[in-house]
């Protein structure tokens, strides 16, 4: 590597302090050991998507002032994010941990529901009230929402970990920990294939 390239690399690394990266991490991600304990406690189920509709999970509700959930997560997960008076992000830098890409336009990002709404419905949310489903779809307390590259999120769709994993294998542990934490927090179930995939991912921690 040439000296100029090394200097550029170093400047890029120090430009984002460790505490800044930590601030942008979704909250309440458990350790791998804790996630394994949580996973063992989840009930196993078979698939049932009967009656699912996305609008049964009202999302991107107003969180503060005129800022909705999407804009709140973009602010949280980005660096040097500037918002307009309507809370839309006009500039900033976002790192997508699923694929390792960095973006400077909010339009290149989706806010992923780590546990997709359809999967939640199959896992027990079909019996919830609409108000509870709204809370789930806008959950900022658990690691359920994260800003990621839009086409990566679209490739994921409503797939569970046995059918889709982040392109970066180095993120398997964190992703599995987030997934399990959300399912545990909301008392949602898993399929046998999902449990097996999560176990394998947690073994990379």
TrEMBL record:
Pfam families: GmrSD_C (PF07510). The keyword Kinase does not apply. Keywords: Signal. The keyword Membrane does not apply. Residues 106-199 form the GmrSD restriction endonucleases C-terminal domain. Residues 1-15 form the signal peptide. PANTHER family: AMP-DEPENDENT SYNTHETASE_LIGASE DOMAIN-CONTAINING PROTEIN-RELATED, SECRETED PROTEIN. This is GmrSD restriction endonucleases C-terminal domain-containing protein. It comes from Choiromyces venosus 120613-1. The lineage of its organism: Eukaryota, Fungi, Dikarya, Ascomycota, Pezizomycotina.
């Amino acid at each position: 590597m040439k000296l100029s390239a090394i200097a550029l690399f170093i400047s890029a690394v120090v430009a984002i302090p460790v505490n800044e990266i930590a601030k942008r991490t979704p909250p309440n991600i458990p350790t791998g050991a804790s996630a394994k304990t949580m996973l063992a406690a989840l009930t196993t189920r078979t698939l049932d998507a009967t009656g699912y509709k996305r609008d049964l999970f009202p999302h991107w509700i107003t969180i503060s002032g005129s800022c909705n959930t999407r804009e709140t997560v973009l602010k949280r997960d980005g660096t040097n994010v500037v918002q307009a008076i309507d809370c839309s992000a006009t500039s900033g830098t976002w790192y997508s941990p699923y694929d390792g890409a960095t973006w400077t336009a909010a339009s290149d990002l989706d806010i992923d529901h780590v546990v997709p709404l359809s999967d939640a419905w199959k896992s027990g949310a079909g019996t919830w009230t609409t108000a509870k489903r709204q809370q789930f779809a806008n959950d900022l307390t658990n690691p359920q929402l994260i800003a990621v590259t839009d086409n990566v999120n679209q490739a994921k769709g409503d797939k569970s970990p046995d059918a889709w994993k982040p392109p970066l294998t180095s993120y398997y542990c964190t992703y599995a920990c987030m997934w399990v934490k959300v399912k545990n927090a909301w008392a949602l179930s898993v399929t046998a294939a999902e449990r097996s995939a999560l176990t394998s991912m947690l073994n990379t921690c």
